[in-house]
Amino acid sequence: MTDPNTPAAAPETLFGLEEMELNFGPQHPATHGVLRLKVRVDGERIVDAYPIIGYLHRGTEKLFELHPFFQNVPHTDRMDYVAAATNNLAYVGAVERLTGIVVPPRARYIRTLLSELQRISSHLLWLATHAIDIGAMTPFFYTFREREIILDLFEEYCGARLTLNCMRPGGQPYDLTAGWTERCAEFIEDFPSKIEDYEGLLTENRIWKKRTIGIGVLPPEVAMSYGVTGPMLRGSGIQWDLRKAIPYEAYDEVDFDVPVFYNCDTYDRYLVRMEEMRQSTRIIAQCLDKLPEGPIMAKRPRVLKAPKESEVYFGIEGPKGEIGFYIVGDGTPNPYRCRVRPPSFLNLQVLPEMVRGQLVADLVAVIGTTDIVLGEIDR
Amino acid sequence: MSDTENQTPEEKAAAEEKAAAAAKAKAEREAAEAAKPAWEKDPVVPEWQEADGDSLVDALRASFGDAIGSARTFAGDLVLVVDRASIREVCRSVKEDHGYHLMVDICGAHYPEREVPGFEVIYIAYNFEENRRVRLKVEVEEGAEVPSVIPVWTGANWAEREIYDMFGVRFTDHPDMTRILLWDGFNGYPLRKEFPVEGIDTGSAIYPEYYEEQAGPVAGSGTGWQPPKEEEPEESDKPDGE
What we know:
With 379 residues, chain A is mainly alpha-helical. Chain A has helices spanning 60-66, 73-77, 84-99, 105-134, 138-158, 180-202, 206-212, 220-225, 231-234, 242-245, 266-290, 343-349, 351-355, 360-370, 374-378, and strands at 20-24, 36-42, 45-52, 310-317, 322-329, 335-341. Chain A has a single domain (60-378), classed as Cytochrome-c3 Hydrogenase, chain B (Orthogonal Bundle), CATH 1.10.645.10. Helices cover 46% and strands 11% of the residues of chain A. Chain B is built from five helices and eight strands, in the order ααβαββαββββαβ. Chain B has helices at residues 2-6, 9-35, 55-64, 87-96, 156-167; strands at 48-50, 68-74, 77-82, 102-111, 118-127, 132-141, 145-147, 170-172. Chain B has a six-stranded mixed beta sheet, covered by helices on one side. A two-stranded parallel sheet of chain B has the order 7-8. In chain B, strand 5 and strand 6 form a beta hairpin.
């Protein structure tokens, strides 16, 4: 859409000054990784922006074709590395649908627990960095305090804090350790009051509101035609959540609401994510209550082969939007083709639409609100 | 048979009873097997099924005729094969007439071993009202171009660029048909099946003024820099058996 080499229709320039082209990133701390933006500015106003990606490309989709289904789970950890559990779940879910494996209930509940904890931890990281980008330092210390507890829970469950590798096609590799549920319940009981703290710092903060209300407006029709999903879509007034629309794991057995806000701006997307953390807390509490006993691994072949000429698409609601896997099987133990549908890739694409006509300082706020992870965009 | 003829009535009755007991035990075993929860049974592998009665398929066949090829479902997903030339119009109809507003994904796949070797471009769209996904597939031969669907879904831009980057499939009327993840001038399409996993010579082909042919850095082997060789130890220093 936006070709950086041919100037767009020339807008009014101030005092006859020429437009300037700036490189924003890839080493800029506010770009959350290695995103590079070519920004054309007229004074402080952004005329156009052109994202350049690929600095973190590792060929993950090629690697998937090399390894058997069971060995591919760790590759998924390294895509969206702040939300490894939901990546795992999308991959193993796709493999299970491809091969017809049914997962036992206890494993489904453990998966739900882990993905909701992961959603909270991802949103906490988002809140910390988003607030720091805009200039609020304090929320960073508060959110990382709680994120640490969640990472400890992950560490206790599977030994890893970030690249969890905590799910397998067919079920869960480990059962919950003794006392895990109590520690998780303790955290969940405490956490809503922590959300109050964050909101006390930001929601009615005048500076925060000045910096976010009316910034980065994304109308719903634009969001849909760009394939934007997740909190970005719900902040644009579309109440759609894959956990409700096409329930997977234990989401049809728990009660929760899908928050939606209608002003389509950065502030509303902030409110959506804050509300989502509350809903995640509710889901976790119910899962802990209902956690069934029983096996955690389904009967599955030792070497898992996909049927010949089979293909499946399975998408789940990750913290950033719909993360999906399109897997083609050819009768061998390896996937013939494994395509990842990364939410950040499609969410980032809409960024030029959101920053046109805004100030350069707001560009940072808009990058923060899209909640991108470059490991997933570049794969 | 002779056994049964020679049997006394008592023996006959006993054998029948035995057979009945065995049948009953077998039925019980089967019932127990059937009553087992799904996760303790062998996985039921999904199969392709024809989807001719589907309302979306019928409507599309009515408006596009032969442009719609096979329509099948696998594991509950509807998959339509569409003629390459009319994919944009089919996508437009799917979006505007049938309500598939959300573009979920567009991706490619390479099939060099088919009768007509080539690629597939897969379009996944989602309908909010019917809560349903549909997959449209286009078969593309080497060198052929696919009409871009950016006029239908603006978000197709990057997805199509990625397919070009990874497979070398080009899209007509695309405003910015450049590489997206790899750098400009990369001489290969990594997700093609013949592309080596260990990488290719990324030096001489791109920077002929700096590197001789086949002498540039090769992906997967670092920069090509070698540490200075140390003098080899004498024979007598080596342990036995080497």
